[in-house]
Amino acid sequence: SMSSAAPHGVVTRGAAVRGLASVDAMGRAYVRAGHRWDTALCQERATSLSLAKRVGHPLVPSGHTYWWTVMIAEWAAELARWRALAAGSSRCDNESTMAHAVDSLDTAREAAERHAWRDAYDAYAAAVVERLAPDDLEKFAHAAWWTGRLDQAIGLRERSYAGFTAAGDKIRAARLALMLYWDEHGRGAFAVARGWFATAERLLEGEPESAVHAGLALSRAVQALFTAGDVPRAIDNFDRSYALAERFGDRDTQALAMVGKGRALAMSGDVEAGLALLDEATAAAVSGDLQPFSTGLVYCITIGACQDLGDYRRAAEWTEAANRWCDRLDVSGFPGACRIHRAEVLRLRGDWPQAEQQAIAACEELHDFDRRITAGGFYEIAEIRRRRGDFALAEEAYAKANELGRDPQPGLALLRLAEGKIDAAVAGITRALEELQLPLSRLRALPAQVEIALAAADLKSARSATRELESIVDAYKLGTERAPAFDATVHFALGRIALAEGDADAAGRDLRKARDEWQRIGAPYEAAQARALLGVAFRRQGDEHAATIELDAALSVFQRLGARVDEERAKEFLGRLEARRTFLFTDIVDSTKLLATLGDEKWKRLLARHDELVREQIVASGGEVIKTTGDGFFASFDNAKGSLEAAVAIQRTLAAEIVAPDVRIGVHTGGAFRTDSDDYGGEGVHLAARVGAAARSGEILVSLGTVDGVASAFRLSEPRAEELKGFDEPVEVVSVDWR
Fold first, then answer.
1. pTM over 0.70
2. Architecture of domain 579-736 in this structure
3. What confidence tens digit (pLDDT) does each residue in 13-25 have?
């Protein structure tokens, strides 16, 4: 026996090392011969070691009595004694060491039962892993998982799986295989995950139905829903999982099947039925009836579904409940996911510093724990930084999200737009929408497409995106009403388009609705964006007082939030900051001669047709007509590309007319101040006017700096220097070939 080999007195280090090897070999022999031991022999050995009172429950319930407990405890104690001696200790007491080992396991099991995972981990860590039975290995793995040690948890679950397999316990081995499937899937090892899933299927094939079969059906449902996008197949498997779990009394799998089916129903458009199931499952989580893993997963799925459906009120309520639960757990993992949901709510409510702090903490906690959730955390960080105007830091966070498997769109496309890289923004959002199939996924990207298309002077694409956005929102109503956030998003998009089309009255109606909806939701940034554009609409209606009220209110919010880009734009609209815009001037060549030749009536008809065509092309390209100048136009654009597209369209449209005047056009990008009368003044405007005056008949003349970044889209002449009135130095200009 091991006890007869126990060393007493002082031993040499060499003897201790040899003893360790001997006991190790003896232990392996015990494992090989363990099943042939009988209970009576183990009882006798336990009594002789005064351990009978310390062991009272088996480590391997399926057919192995408590002899296994005694054998493992004795073996672990003997190894511990020899290891201590090999390290230089001189004496070790057999009975106390073994008693400590058994006590440690009892402590670990008790801590695991009450979900005190850190205590359980520490107690299990004091044991010799190689000597733990499969049940204890599984509990040790849970403790490692909940304390953020994913690699160790996987290793322990693999050991537990091997133990159950060696014991011929296919059901428990399959349960471990499913756990390992989700572990590997979560960290992005998809091939390994598929291997474990196939193992679980093989083990359960031909076995009597059990709660583990319910878990297998649940896994198939999740695969169908989130990987294949096959909602009907997902719902069938959720139903099978629920029925099996109910039959075998597995409340955790029941709740997960219920919340999964709720998500699937909501995705398919049956929103009310889906939300009812989500609420029911989440109420079970709140009540404390579920295990911690199931509780956390139910919370995550419910909150994600509510956000997808635009029901931010319900999402916020469940997020608060989830965070109270997370805060009670002294663990890692799910608290990281809870923090990300909390960050999303805080960002919406306008507490950006706290939102960023929560998201960063979440990513630090999660690490590789679940790549998808961690990627979502980095995307949230990027969104906050983009809104704040920290473009370089935002790009870093988008890149990290992308590295972890989360598409950085539409946020990255909006970042490119904010940087003035319109072509890159268009390419990014176009690619993203080509790859998105599910309606709710497309809904998240469509508002960005509207904004980017308008910046690119592509009204057709903006209108198309808005029509699709509106149809999806109407397909996912909460009862008979649109979700407030979705309704606000639709009206904001419609208001943007109406402004671009020059319909200030329609823009005002839609932007008021957007502003009011976002205010009711409690989303200050989105409400301020709507107010800023509403101010522009009021100004175009001639109501400067109302415009100033809205713009001032928007400016105040942007300043409080630290939204620098939006703050600057609001100041530009209020005339408190120089704006950088692209200005376009048109002018009819030899208008006096035409008037004399045609006479008043024909001239008026010709001029009216000219004005109609020029105005249409300016608006269609995303420009704003600032004013007419007798026989010409002064227009403003957000970017050079739109202005040059408008100039080319004007010349081509007039050339297609049977009778039309020759027009010259000048374009320049520069700084200017917005005046109270919705006009612009400053050097940029004066230079654009002088460039227009220097253009020849039928020419589009552009300052050289204006074509930087957009030159590849147009055919340009070689640069030439022009002496412009009022400017000391010659200005480099190029001509655009529009024919």
1. no
2. 2-Layer Sandwich (3.30)
3. 444 444 444 544 4
